[in-house]
């Protein structure tokens, strides 16, 4: 059993990582369908939220069917983060998650996201302010440290725990590493096994198969795992991982026609939530992953990624189903 705030998981939770322009309601719908135990919004700028920016406000949308859900905030100004957390609480998330891990340069160089790892006192100040300002449980997602010379996650974890968070997710890379190389789970395991740490520790980074998920759980003993980029275009990965953890049996990927139907459903949900053309633009990165590896796919892919007509896109998806039937 794993307890995060008021949420109790009977089994090891398999979570969907928050990803900008990815984890919107349309993608979350599919991940929940395939068994994601907990999900998070795209990250929301504290500045954008307190200024009532339309895009930031829209990201607060949570459906009851998605729960348990976390709203993730980022920023580097303490009072702005505090006010944003109070606003986020009105959407009734199950947790408010603080993003101290995004390595994107335009965010990190301002001192937000992973850039916060260069100023741990400010990180803990913001965390404490948010914890004290809201009744909703607060969690944090961060990285091993800012760079190879400053992998200070063990000290950071203790300070964040003292500031009052109820769970910590650690991505096994540094801020400067971005998403390059392999995730290093060694320090994640050290945090989990530190006798001073009593909050749940969630491991994140390179979980792209059921076998990898089990290996990381067995080796490092974390309380849960979080899947990010590997789930893009593969929402069924959650079902595969959970089945393997429970039974030790591997289940195959959906057939090509099943993937086509899932892509259609995803497109419908994206258009329903974001309209056209934005819903189409944001589906393009998913389409590439749904049909990755198909032979001689380039002409169809080009059409799929350039059309702005929903009916035409649906027709192209049908063509993919017909051309690659049996795969």
Structure description:
- The protein has 327 residues and is an alpha/beta fold.
- It folds into 2 domains: 2-247, Aldolase class I (TIM Barrel, Alpha-Beta Barrel); 256-323.
- The chain contains 15 helices and 11 strands.
- Strands 3, 4, 5, 6, 7, 8, 9, 10 and 11 form a 9-stranded parallel sheet that branches. It has a two-stranded antiparallel ribbon with strand order 1-2.
- The longest helix has 19 residues, at 256-274.
- The radius of gyration is 20 Å and the shape is globular.
User: Within the CATH hierarchy, at the fold level, what is the topology of the largest domain?
Assistant: TIM Barrel
Total number of β-strand segments? Answer: 11
What spatial form do the alpha-carbon principal axes imply?
globular
* Rg, Cα atoms, Å: 20 Å
The total of helices stands at: 15
Estimate the mean pLDDT confidence. Answer: 96
Low-confidence stretches: none
Per CATH, the superfamily of the largest domain is Aldolase class I
Largest beta sheet, briefly? 9 strands, parallel
- Compute the number of structural domains: 2
The secondary structure category is alpha/beta
What is the percentage of strand-forming residues?
5-15%
Helix amount = 40-55%
Which tags fit this structure?
13% strand; globular; two-stranded antiparallel sheet; 43% helix; TIM Barrel; single chain; nine-stranded parallel β-sheet; 327 residues; alpha/beta; 15 helices
Walk me through the topology.
Elements: E1 2-4, E2 7-9, E3 14-16, H1 25-33, E4 39-40, E5 44-45, H2 46-50, H3 54-58, E6 69-74, H4 78-89, E7 95-100, H5 105-108, H6 120-133, E8 138-143, H7 153-163, E9 167-171, H8 186-192, E10 201-204, H9 210-220, E11 224-227, H10 237-247, H11 256-274, H12 278-281, H13 284-290, H14 298-304, H15 310-323
Helix pairs in contact: 1-11, 4-6, 6-7, 9-10, 11-15
